[in-house]
């Protein structure tokens, strides 16, 4: 568990979930979100262990983004709890969850187009206690394959390069868990392959991931374990081969009742 770098951040009381496994990084219990009469996330018990690279898939409107926003704190649940490293974060604001080791990259890039690539990386690094911000930014540029573009305005990068830059910005905080919402949407085959390589290499180095994705070729490249969400509930969980061969999963994607 990362220690909050900001001394003003207090995450207490530290209430361990009864269902938290020793190696579980993320546990949701009975997590529920209603929008009026619509239950977007319905009593979800979702566990991710340390070191996992879990993909979260499901048809449009299944509740994937809502679940992610409940985990990051962008949304408050109607019911249920969110535990991170055994600590109850349900009522902790989202910026404090970042300090606790939870990073998120939303679907559209959130970068500063007028700043250079290196300057963009320096922004999150200022949140850390590192005193070698310039060299840390360059290390990350190497990692995300953008070393040659350090001085280019971020707005000049391709869509795929911007996504890699933003993943790099999130990794500078050395999160315990990285959440990515459709990281390869709108990318070329080559760009998708480079993001897949980056995620795999960060995961090989020990970073835990939850990745929401529709592109099944990409899911196959990066993940062995997949969770399928349908109508707000966990529908299936298992190895990618089993999930793809599951006729009930195929039916929900066709909009048929399973
Ligand atoms: N702020 C909101 N207000 C009302 N309804 C919402 C809100 N956000 C999401 N919903 C509804 O909740 C359900 C789940 O939406 P969500 O975006 O989480 O699904 P998703 O699985 O991420 O879909 P997609 O793959 O299309 O992005 C949908 O029916 C959606 O219309």
Question: Can you tell me about this structure?
Answer:
The chain has helices at residues 64-72, 94-99, 117-125, 133-143, 159-171, 189-204, 216-222, 240-245, 247-253, and strands spanning 24-35, 38-49, 53-57, 79-84, 87-88, 102-105, 177-181, 208-212, 225-230, 233-239. It is α/β, with parallel strands linked by helices and 258 residues long. It has two domains: 20-101 and 177-258, P-loop containing nucleotide triphosphate hydrolases (Rossmann fold, 3-Layer(aba) Sandwich); 113-174, no CATH class. It has a six-stranded mixed beta sheet, with helices on both faces. A four-stranded antiparallel beta sheet has the order 2-1-4-5, with helices on one face. A hairpin with a 2-residue loop joins strand 4 (79-84) and strand 5. Helix 3 (117-125) crosses helix 4, helix 3 runs parallel beside helix 5 (159-171) and helix 5 runs parallel beside helix 6 (189-204). It binds adenosine-5'-triphosphate. Adenosine-5'-triphosphate binds at residues 35, 38, 40, 58, 60-66.
